[in-house]
Protein: thioredoxin-dependent peroxiredoxin
Amino acid sequence: MLSSKSASMRVSGARGARVSGVSRRGAAGRSYRRSSSAVAMSVTSEATPPLVGNPAPGFSAEAVFDQEFINVTLDQYKGNKYVVLFFYPLDFTFVCPTEITAFSDRYEEFSAIDTEVLGVSVDSQFSHLAWVQTDRKEGGLGDLKYPLVSDLKKEIASAYQVLSDEGVALRGLFIIDKEGVVQHSTINNLAFGRSVDETLRVLQAIQYVQNNPDEVCPAGWKPGDVTMKPDPEGSKEYFASI
Structure:
């Protein structure tokens, strides 16, 4: 069960499609010029426990899926699905659509291994809908195979420690297991995107070690590769094979 700190948060559904005081051009432009260390300082200024290995912060929020407004809660996947939860800065930007469509184009690979994908930004669900309804050739998304979640109050980004001092989310990505525990996280600055291939590889490694608790996966492990035993004697077989 999630702690009170991780209690569900509800995102307001109809309060404005703009984030007050933050322009897309201004937020993106200033952040690209800032050093990554400056952004990191703003996110981690208070002592907080690491997310990896702990229950994922719960949330309940409005989202867009299949060109309709729906409500998404993290709890709805607990016990049934792994979740790839990724944050991106803003709708109608530049790197973001390349990531969002890349995950959608390969959604079946995640679905085949009991995994749901959720994208999150601080935009409203109305902005998400407009972007989905824009053709890819015009910088839009077209139809997506997974929900885009609205975090208009920035509560979800704050809970996952990815809210920058510019008021937008850094490119954080979290893999949450079926028990609701965060098993993996990465955070990129704004100017460069993430890899679907690497996300799948890490997800498959997580699932393997959870199904085979007496084994661990070495660097770069992919399904079919050799694993090792996590003890001085048992690991010798692996090291002798490389």
Notes: The chain has eight helices and seven strands. The chain has a mean pLDDT of 86.
